[in-house]
Please model this.
Amino acid sequence: MKAALLKGLNYFEIEEIEKPVPSDHEVLVKVKAAGICGSDIHKMQNEWKYELPMVTGHEFSGVIESIGTEVKKVSVGDRVAIAPLIPCHECTYCKSGKYQLCENYTMIGSHRYGGFEEYVTVPEENVINIGENISFEEAAMIEPLAVAAHGVMGLDPKLGDTVAVFGLGTIGILTVQWLRLTGVKKIIGIDIDPNKIKEAMKYGVTDTINSLEESLEDRIFELTDNKGVDIAIECAGSKITEEQCLLITRKGGLIGYQGIAYSDVLLHQKAFENIFRREYTIKGFWNSYSAPFPGKEWIHSAEFIEQGKINLKDLISHRYELNDIQKAFNLTVNREESYNKVMIFPEERKEEEK
Ligand SMILES: [Zn+2]
Ligand SMILES: [Zn+2]
Model:
């Protein structure tokens, strides 16, 4: 079978490798669609900490091709999405249902082969049955959708709240879509890319701010009767926006950090003092899991997609076949053009599979 082997920083080779065989509690998935994640791109730009060669890809979907002898919940032919975290189930965090904090986890696509190949074996408990109505590329986006859900569920916005979302990339837009479903009054989308700001209007953002072109604080206070937002959610992962959250949230407000800080975050005195002077509650969100594994984030994501309440299709900006994975990564790693979700397909795509 064909696999895209990562052999160095942003260096892939397509090779024929042996088709894996599922162990007793595993299933063999024929991959149908696999997305490139922002974290994949970051790893290609900086450092790859895991073994090489590796087959990356942790956002994928497919059809179950065969099952191990002990597999009970799914059958051959089932259409599935894959939750990529394999928790140890033994550490304190796993035992309390906080799988995202596991001390000894395995990640599909980093520690073991992921979705950028034709067939992958995964544990039975990592598959989510998607039924017949969700397309494979939508199912490949359940992972980022579950990440966004984890943050929004943890912040638990109230009817009528005003929320600022920093960063209108995939996670930001998915966060906006969850927020819209919670009944918040205003969703203020903040970014520095005019294309992303324009796109965000389609998904339920009520106001937008281009923080390169206008004063963020002035505009926020204008939009909130000089109070600041009830909730700020950071999905950009920039040291500037990590600090800005602390400047534009109202007294007693809530701040959620979800974007990875890829450099040191230095706080000015005012930003830091606001934490206690304004009595902020600050929450961090990592990954997308809760008990029972993989968690409500995953189950709700699949159900809401099926009900047509979440729009994923328009977020896919580029589609490539597996043979062209290098082109796909070059596009994202070198920022050759504006992109959102980039999808990889291991087999030649027929029109009806879109
Ligand atoms: Zn991801
Ligand atoms: Zn654990």
User: Anything to note?
Assistant: The chain has two domains: 2-141+312-353, 148-284.
